[in-house]
Amino acid sequence: MKRRTLGKKIISLARKFPVISIAGPRQSGKTTLARTIFKTHNYVNLEDPDERAMALNDPRGFIRRFTGGVILDEVQKALDLLSYLQGIVDADDSPGRFILTGSQQFQLLHKVGQTLAGRAAVVNLLPFTLSELCDQESLDPYNFDLPSGMGKEPPFNLETILFQGFYPRIHDKRIDARDWLSSYYRTYVERDVRDIINIGNLDAFQRFLMLCAGRAGQLLNLSSLASDCGISHTTARQWLSVLQAGFITLLLPPHYANFSKRIIKSPKLYFIDSGLLCYLLKMREPSDFLFHPLKGSIFENFVVSELYKTFCHIGETPPLYFWRDRTGHEVDIIIDTGKKLIPVEIKAGETVSESFYQGLKYYMSLGKNISQTGVVVYGGEKYYERKPFLLRAWFQCS
Predict the structure, then answer these.
(1) What pLDDT is stored for residue 108 in this prediction?
(2) Which of 10, 159, 208, 275 could serve as a FRET partner for 290 with CA atoms 20 to 30 Å apart?
């Protein structure tokens, strides 16, 4: 098993909280990580019909079976259990006693917040980061603007890893990426994610997903998306929330000093996994990326996703934004560390040109709290320090 960065955070939290909730999409490695860390805990998979029936019909008897710690896998299948855990934890709040895993973010977080507030720590485990896949130490994303050296090149090229994506099973079992992603799409995206709010029209939902893939890296325009899909604006908003709840997509908000504007203004749309994005874009082999009309958007999606996963895997809410002004100046990512704003530009090209720096130069001239080092992540394989800029190769973003 490859080492997961989130493991350190979970071990630390398990010394303080009686309940640890590990959320994330199916097949992201939640069960493997939980069972590796908590080797002496009992384990129950609530996908098992018999276990689920007992948990639903006799929750007190179900919980009483376990004298020590227990891992409750896919706990969203029996969320009412959490109401009974509240009383048990209040009577005995031994740290690390209950480990919950689940693949439906909104339902699980709502129930945990409702019944176990102050008693549970919540973390998200997403597919591998590039550094995890390559068995390397993760970069500190809060210091993304500090020199870090070249690092070790991965044993695969950019187009291959973008096409394969980062779900563990593809790499652990050496499964053909297209075959696995096709199965994953049909069993998880079409079935489990769609069932969160009982979406009945499968054809419209499939069309909605394809349209979202075609808009990856773009400003979210729900009215246009709804119109192109033939659904209402309200339905489009609900379906996008479903994709977020299922850890399929993420939204990157704009950065404003005024916090209310960050909520009101349109975010940019991305997918958590580049492999699933490539599958939805009908790419059939890695080399398709090199000539794809959305090559720049796919690469941008990859870098945003890597930084997003890196923050999640140290147990942090990703402080990631984009910036754009009224005159057309923009920066792809702003990392808001609280002390400074780190601007990051993303370029799919392999040849460095002066145009890589233009957006960064303008943004860095605007004033206080902005890092004195701008970062470019590009499609090449060399590392450069050209003050006041760092150029990171594509494999140096996590």
Answers:
(1) 59
(2) 208
